[in-house]
Structures are given as structure tokens and as C-alpha cells.
Amino acid sequence: MGTKKLTLLHSNDMHGDFLAESQGASGNLIGGLSLLSGYINQVRKEEENVLYAIAGDMLQGSMIDTEYRGVSTIEMMNYLAPDVVTLGNHELDYGLYHLLFLEKMANFPIVNANMYIKKYNKRLMRPYLIVEKAGIQILFIGVITDLILASLKTDTQIGSFISLEQAAAEVGRICNVYKSEDIELTVLLTHIGFDADKEMAALLKPEWGVDLIIGGHSHTLLEKPEIVNGIPIVQVGVGTNQIGRFDLLVDDDTNRVMELNWQLVPIDNQHAQPDAQLEAYINSYRDAVDRKYDGIVCRLVQQLTHPTRGQETALGNLIADIFQERANVDVALVGSGSIRGEQMGPLVTLGELKAVYPYDGSLHKCTVTGAQLKKVFAHTLRPASESGAGSVYQVNRGVRAIYDRARRELQALTLNGQPVQDDQRYTLCLQYYTYNNLHFLDLTEAELSALAPPRVVTSSAQEVLEEYLRAHQNINSVVEGRLTFVN
């Protein structure tokens, strides 16, 4: 019996991670599109049958991407030449019409089965792609859910399925209609998060024949596949520091997959040589951006860090303090995910500031009761927030919240040393994204407007940060127990 080999490479949540970084005392290079392209090119030369897939969120996370509104990213992705890509939530950050423009720019197919133009009940993208390699046909289906596409609540033209059950049913419908006996491998490209991938895998019927789930969104770095309902689920963290690799053996006579192995491959100069042409292309963008954004905004006392989204950070404290002062509120909530850099300073350039806080938008001042404020903190500090199902929020000085993880309850909430009272009124500053997605706070629009109408205090949070930092040199911020978790 003869066999053929099929190699399936995959990335997710690359987020504009274009440039390699040095690591360790030896200065070995890791990550970046040049090394990633070098590894992919190497595999394409070594192996006869190679596919490369991306599970969403190519965009956002770098000044180059922000400055060119994703155009630069798509051009670089054209250079990598993936065989199939699915949409992530950040592909829509620049709006529906710009997404459609980027899709026309792409030299690769983008699949998504469950985003619809509401008025016409028509899919926004092609739902699936069938590719033939190693003599077998592989069916790729793209999936994202309404929970992940929360940003689209501001765009009334697009809808998606609300539940995983509905998304799983749509996968079944596509498999039932389009999967013939010639298709021997069915791959879901999802952007719904690792926990949701496991939930959806459990919902898939065996007769639909889904073989693999390649996921994204939660930035989960796996050392081995998670098997649920007989289906391997994989995800490779965030950025370009690693890539996933499936090696499959296919029976020559029956075209059936006989063996399937997966590994997490580091992208470094021990495993690949840089792609010099792509590196020069990226540098042309970087040089243009550097010339525009190299101006110094301020100097901080020390470098401020934001190493995790699940806890209080020094950089998060600084941003929350600035927003609280500008909005003149009791509490400012800053989504940890809106802070995209892990450190800033001590010398802060305009480019670094915009890379750390790339999402511009309005700030909103709202009025809530103490009881509602406690509900918000109880919801945002719950364990699920750290696993990607929600978001821990950075808060301003004067706020102290203690959350009991063992009991899963808010133990205490004080403001300037005084316990928050259920029947008192408190003012709240919300970023644009949170204001338009109140389910992240476990609030409704009616609750938020019952005491006083919300109002916009600024149309540009980025400008608030820039102007404040220019006017305040040598400032400092530290982690001081604003958010405390106890067991």
C-alpha cells in the first residue's frame, strides 16, 4: 500500500506582528513575517503537498497596520500566499466597506459561513472552499459568532448567528449539502476562542465528518491538540513567534487519511532563514511610519508594563487615571484588550503611544447606582474574563475592588476609602467599544440611561492620551492593589 504526505500549516491572531525580535543573551531572532515566510517557503520546497491556513485576526496590533488601515497587512499576506483564510473580529475594525475593499485586494480566498447582510439574507463571504492536494479534496469552512463580532453591533447591516448551536447547525448544513464522498478531510477555521471551540466540537454530529478545528481569538498556546468528540482542536497563541503544523499520511488507493500528527513549530533563526525580499518590503513601510511617528511625546519615570489582560497593570493604571481626570468621573473602566502593547517608555514616541493604544474612539460619561457598579465589577472580575469570555478592566486611582475567586463573588468595592453604597449615584467613563457592547459589563442600555442620559466627553481617546502626556513629563504609575484577587 502506497502513501502520500499532506502538510497543513496554520497561524492565527497574527495582529500585525511583522518584525522579528531578539531573544535571550545570544540575540537569536524570533517571530516576524520574514522568518515566518522563510519557514513556509522552506516547507513548500521540502514537501510536495503543502497548505497554509490563517484562522483570523491578521489585522491590528502594529503602527504599520493602523497607518495604512490594513492595506499594508493584506499586501504582506499576499506575499505569504495562504491557501485559505477566515475572518476574525479585527478584520472589521476599519468598517464593513473597508473590509470589502481589503477582500478585493487579497489574492487568497476568505471564507466565512455565518455572516450575513441582514436586508438580503445573503452571506458576506464565500462560506467554504474545497482544495485538492495529495489526491484528496479538503473542505474548509469559516466560522465566527455574534459574541465575537460584538463590534458589529454598531453596523446594522451585518448579522451573524448568536449561539454556538446555530453555528454548529450551519456547519452541518454545509457538510450535508457540499460534502461528497470525494472529500476526505473537513477543516473548520474558527475565530471564536478555545473554550467555544470545545463547546462547538461537542455539538458536531459524527455524520457531518468534521476532522479538524483550527481556531483563534483567545490567543491560546497549545502544546498538543485538545480532542473533543473525536475532533482535534488546535491554536497557536498570538503573533508570529510560532506556527502549527499537521503532517498527514494519505492512502494512495483510497485517498483516506491514515495518520495525522501535529506539532508547534517555533519561528526563529534556528528553524528558518529570513525572506530577504519580504523583509525589505516590510522595512519600506516601517521607515515611512518611523519618519512620521518618531517624535517624542514625553518621558516617564520608568518603563510601564501591561504583561497580562487578567490583572491590574501599571500601564493600565496610567491610562485609566488619564481618562478619569478628563471625564471627571468616579470610575473609569479601560478594557485590558484595548491596550495592545506590553510596555511603554520611559521615552515615549508618538508611534509607541499609538501602538500601545491603537483604537481611537469616543469616551462616554454615564451615571449608575452603587448596586449596578458592584454588579459590573462582579461580572468583569469573574474567572471567565481571564479565559477570553469577557474582559478585566483597568481602573483609576481611588478604586479598590476585592474579588473572591473561590466563592466567585465580589468581596468589597470602595471608592476613595469609602464602601460603595447601593443606593448612591456614581459616574462612570466608558470607552466607545464598551459603551456599544454593554453585555461585557452585564448592563443594558435602559439601566445605563435610567438615572441620566449618557454623554460624549471626547470624540478621540487617543488625543486625550497624547495631550495629557505632552503636558505631564516624568510621571509614574505602579500596581497598587486597585484590583485584588483572593482565594
Please give a handful of descriptors for the protein shown.
487 residues, alpha/beta, Purple Acid Phosphatase, chain A, domain 2, 5'-nucleotidase,  domain 2, 2 domains, six-stranded mixed sheet, 29% strand
Describe the structure.
- The chain is α/β, with parallel strands linked by helices.
- The protein folds into two domains: 3-286, Metallo-dependent phosphatases (Purple Acid Phosphatase, chain A, domain 2); 296-486, 5'-nucleotidase,  domain 2, CATH 3.90.780.
- Helices cover 28% and strands 29% of the residues.
- The strands form eight sheets. The chain has a six-stranded mixed beta sheet, covered by helices on one side. Strands 9-10-12-13-15-14 form a six-stranded mixed beta sheet, with helices on one face. Strands 24-20-28-23-29 form a five-stranded mixed beta sheet.
- A hairpin with a 4-residue loop joins strand 2 and strand 3 (28-30).
- Helix 8 packs across helix 13 (461-471).
- The N and C termini lie far apart (58 Å).
- 46% of the residues are buried.
